[in-house]
Amino acid sequence: MANDFQNVLERITTLIFYADRTLMKKVKQRKSKNLINRKARFEYTFVESLEAGIVLTGEEIKAVRANKVNLTGSHVKIITGETWWVGGIIDVPVGDRQRTRKLLLHKNEIAKISGQTIEKGLTIIPTKIYLKKGRAKLQIALSRGKNLHDKREALKSRDLEREAAGKIKY
Fold first, then answer.
1. How would you classify residue 71: left for phi > 0, otherwise alpha for psi between -120 and 50, otherwise beta?
2. Of the candidates 158, 139, 84, which has an alpha carbon nearest to the alpha carbon of residue 114?
3. Is residue 88 within 8 Å of residue 101, measured between CB atoms?
4. Of 139, 131, 147, which is closest to residue 74 (Cα–Cα)?
5. Secondary structure class of 54 (helix, strand, coil)
6. pLDDT in tens, 141-162
7. What is the distance between the alpha carbons of residues 124 and 77, in angstroms, rounded to a whole number?
8. CATH number of 35-168
9. Which of 47, 101, 105, 29 is nearest to 69 (CA)?
């Protein structure tokens, strides 16, 4: 009877061990990648880019790690010497998905980009969100809007590159 109990106990421990290993594999597969704002790259030309930290809640950082972020249609505003990310969607189960979030930059960086936005008429667009040493970072870019003919040229050059790559393959 004691041997039967030990056999059952060993089987349960091995099942728990293998179940834990498969869960760890799934967690490793869900590792967050760089989420890129592709629409911004098409609609704007980037002049300069900066890296900014984001002030997030616990639920939001979990959502960032699970790639539940949408950058399209969002922008950055400078209000009373602080930078704020407006319109970015982080899919959290509880709370406001589209609240404004504070960005962490040095004062001299804020002064520099605010001066350029006022003088040159540039806008500040988030281009990428990623994790760096466990912290969420937002790459922002000072950018200028493209005209319609610039967008058409970008589409033509992209099509030509695809055709050239297709010919090289075969």
1. alpha
2. 84
3. yes
4. 139
5. strand
6. 998 887 777 778 777 888 888 8
7. 7
8. 2.40.280.10
9. 101
Amino acid code (one letter) for 108 = N
All structural domains of the chain with their residue ranges: 35-168
Q: State the average pLDDT over residues 41-52.
A: 85
Nearest to 79 by CA among 63, 60, 101: 101
Q: What is the pLDDT of residue 29?
A: 45
pLDDT tier, 2 (very low <50, low <70, confident <90, very high otherwise) = low
Exposed, middle or buried: residue 88 (CB in 10 Å: 0-12, 13-18, 19+)? buried
Q: Which of 54-58, 86-90, 152-156 has the lowest mean pLDDT?
A: 152-156
Structure tokens at 108: 């001299």
Q: Is 43:151 a contact under the CB 8 Å cutoff? A: yes
Which of 51, 89, 40 has the alpha carbon at shortest distance from 67?
Answer: 89
pLDDT tens per residue across span 99-126: 899 999 999 999 999 888 888 888 899 9
Alpha-helical regions (H) of the chain: 2-29, 38-43, 58-65, 107-120, 148-169
- Give residue 82's identity as a one-letter amino acid code: E
Q: Considering the entire predicted model, what is its pTM?
A: 0.67
